[in-house]
Amino acid sequence: MQKSQVNLQAYLNNTSVLIVIIDCQGNIVEFNSACEKTSGYTLAEVSGKSLWEAFLLPEDQQDVKGIFNTLLSNKQPGQYESVWIAKDGSHRTISWTNTVILDDNGEVEHIISTGIDVTEQRLTEKALKENDERYSQLFMGSFAPMLLIDAETGYIVNANQAALQFYKYSLNEIRERTIADINTLPASKITKKMREARIQRHNYFLFKHRLADGQVRDVEVYSSPVVIDNRELLFSIVHDITWRKQAEEETISISRFPEENPNPVIRFSKDGRILYANRASADLLKTWQADVGEYAPVDWQEKIEKVYASNRMNEAEVDCTDRVFSCILAPLIQDGYINLYGRDVTSRLAAERARERLLLELENEKRRWQSTVESMIDPVVVYEQSGKVSYRNAAYLHLLNNGVEADPMAPSNDQENSVKLHNRSLLGRFEETAKKSALHGVEVRDEELILSGTRGSKIHLVWNASPLRDVEGNVDGAVLVFHDISELEHARKELRQHAEYLERLNRDLEDFLFLTTHDLQEPMRKIRAFGDLMEVSLRNKLEGEELDHLRRMHKAAMRMQKMLDELLIYARLTAHPSPMERVNLNRLMDKVLVNLKPKIDQSGAKVDVGSLPAVEVDYNQFVLLFQHLVSNALKFQKEGQRPVIKISCQETQNGHKMGNGSVILIVEDNGIGFDVTYLEKAFMPFQRLVGRSEYEGTGMGLTICRKIVEHHGGKITAESSPGMGTKFIIQLPREQA
Hints:
By secondary structure, this protein is α+β, with helices and mostly antiparallel strands. Helices cover 44% and strands 26% of the residues. The chain has 6 domains: 116 residues, Beta-Lactamase, CATH 3.30.450; 125 residues, Beta-Lactamase (2-Layer Sandwich), CATH 3.30.450.20; 84 residues, 2-Layer Sandwich (Beta-Lactamase), CATH 3.30.450.20; 105 residues, Beta-Lactamase (2-Layer Sandwich); 68 residues, no CATH class; 155 residues, Heat Shock Protein 90. It contains 23 helices and 27 strands. Strand 9 and strand 10 form a beta hairpin.
């Protein structure tokens, strides 16, 4: 409370309005410097004395006490006028407005009286009434705005110079107006007030008057009737009290300020002295090591003086260790002081610092990203959402210039420069197309672009264009990445050439094998024929070892003939293939079983053929394939056991990298089986896993089977174990490419 009183006293001493604060007994509590100047008394001389005993004429004391008692009872503002006796014995006429201040219980605690010295106005009125001859001089020369108003019509008859300046009209303009054009009250109320002034029921009024520029000012009007040239007029003296009304409102506001405002508010004099500060300003005052009545720190005094001189607001921050305030200095030139309005921005600054740290981290991340991309050998271009290039790495610039900056001014026959310019034009057109796709949210991958290199070479590029999206998924840019596959293309070309060479070599070998096998058939047939003749003609002449040699030679020739037959079949598979056709495998198996019927009947085998699909194959080769597999199943059997053979199918979709569907054919038996360690050997030419003495054969059957399956783009393998039978698994596409 003491601090609040200091704040209030500081304000009272810096206003030109007479302000007296009295308690409910009528004793003086506060007495500002304007009162001291007008009365000649100091606060110390009048503090605690009753207002009427200290200043009023004896004949006025009872009237003022009555007004005081009325204020205590109805607690409403009131006005009155009294004569003060100054210390030097002079009399001053003061017009007072009184406002009551209530305590928490609603009882009157203080009365604030604000007054203005109207001695000059009263003397003027008196002079006008006493001496008509001096009217013009007093009326026109007065510093107070004065009006003469027709009491009947309300038209303004005359106005002095002060009134013209105040209302901002010329004399002719103001004479064309009625008082209703100036007074903001409704016309009916204005008429009523004029009637009261005419009969002198009241001669003091509070109005709001509108000026020529639209401003509305608070005024107090002293109006009384006069007769000039036999015409009844109202003589009105106008005093602008707008600033006084503001002072009254501010005085009341200041008395309650510390309890109402949660933010710092401080008032300074124009030279930097602290006039008052609310409770929320405690941290600021502590930081400044200053209090009300003292001066702000030197740097703030300079700020305050600068703000007052420029009549412009300024903003500054004050760091109070654990809190930071953003303070605005606002000048109030008319009243001669500067207000400081503070706001706690600690949380905001913490958020801004966090944001700055985040931005720094993002910038560091961007630099790391750029460093990484810059070190890449792949060219990279980044575009903004508008399509403008925001970044190109060194590899891209190298690609753009092909290692050397192209010179547009070089001669047209400069082939190297021409190639560079052509590449740049082609790359620019291509970039525009790829960029548009990515900026529309379309990702493009693994597209190729070929540029011209030096000395007739080609630069093969693979590129990807991808949209860049923000956290909400909206496209806000694009990135284009190139990868130079020139070396890979060169390797592919060499590989294709080598593959073509191997293919030619294989064809030559197959042709050689076919021709050789075919040509060996004739000599082998003659050897067998002459051997048969020798055996018939010499059978009774040869004995013992000679006859055994002849028989061995005959058997060897027979084996050789079979081997040549198998080799010839193997060679014909690719040398003379039949056209591919769609074949129903169940019908094909009927053909196979007819061909093998004698062997099946001889062994008593059971052959179970399931539902098989139709596939695109070489019919003759697949007959041969199944004949070999079923023959093997019939041949490699345990002694005394009935062979059981099952042929089935299993279909897959996109299985085993077979494209648009594949089939798996299974040929399963209950034969002797074999160790899968030797699986690869079983498919090699002339390789046998059992002896010739036990099971006949050339060792070419499974080799032919593999050749047929691979010729159809498939694979063949087997699952087996000794004594547990064998399962051959054939995997091939349903249709040939």
